Amino acid sequence: MWRDPGTPADSYYQLRPECSDVPESKFRIKAGKTLSSRKWKASFSPEGYLDIGKTLRRIQRGGIHPSIRGEVWEFLLGCYDPKSTFEERDQIRQRRRVSYAHLKEECHQMFPLVGSGKFVTAPIITEDGEPTQDPIVLQQINLEKEPAALTVGNGNDENPDASGGSQMEKQSNGHGAMDKREIQWKLTLHQIGLDVVRTDRTLVFYEKQENLSKLWDILAVYAWFDADVGYCQGMSDLCSPMIMLLEDEADAFWCFERMMRRLRGNFRCTERSVGVEAQLGNLASVTQVVDPKLHQHLETLGGGDYLFAIRMLMVLFRREFSFPDSLYLWEMMWALEYDPDLFSMYEEHESAENLRDLLGERPSRNGTVGSLKEKT
To answer: Which stretches does the entry tag as region Disordered (predicted)?
Structure first.
């Protein structure tokens, strides 16, 4: 019987011509199996209620068409409730965009390159909070030549004669000595920049400076938002697809934030343990039962601790598979383990968090974000 081989998904994620060693994608868009734009739109009632059961079954059969992947992911990750209307979701979307704008502005006030279309790849402060005078940093910030990059709004600088050094010191010190949280955040900014320039460099999408800057901005804001975890290597691999699939930066941020609620434990490392240690143990146990010969072989080679799988588990095989295949893997997992109460759980905790803000009972965002992630 003839079977439709499907359409390759690579055309939706263009590769740079010089990158010829990229693994070929196995994922194929198949009519009747892959969730198409037409089927997706037909899954909504006139008011906007989503038939999530029907949608999940379609995804499990053949994944999601790249043209609608971003908006479908927002439901899979719990950004929106399937039982909400078009109007209710629009209100939530606008509220979140305002929240992200406030977060980004807060970060911009601490370090003006956030939101400027630029980013750094060299340290901007020392470990004790003192500003560096690294020429690479000053060149990247370009303070003396482009002071407008440090202003908000129309780019008119009220003090164009300020020197690069004094501006750097002013922005680093703010209104006084920086607290530990701000120092830690600023120490990670160049690490984010170094990872950004290495993330998905085979894709044409990241040839544009604006897309690199958008990725850096989101990761920088998230590192401030969830200071308990901050930023760790590998997060850029998880965030990159969000930038490509969701045009609005705020929407991409909140989709990434929802994804991190599932995965933030992977990035919480101490001197005694690695975040994915429990998963490594589970992997060893499963392999020992499913394929005891393979497990024995790995132990013979000295790999019985499964440390070789740390990267695979931390970034969900982003670097092991092609870009389209890794996205297909993710959405299949999310569809199979989808919890219909996911959105409600998130919203309940966020409402409690906002109430603590109003009552002045919340000591810091640090602890509440951690508590929220552990409960959800």
So the answer is: 151-175
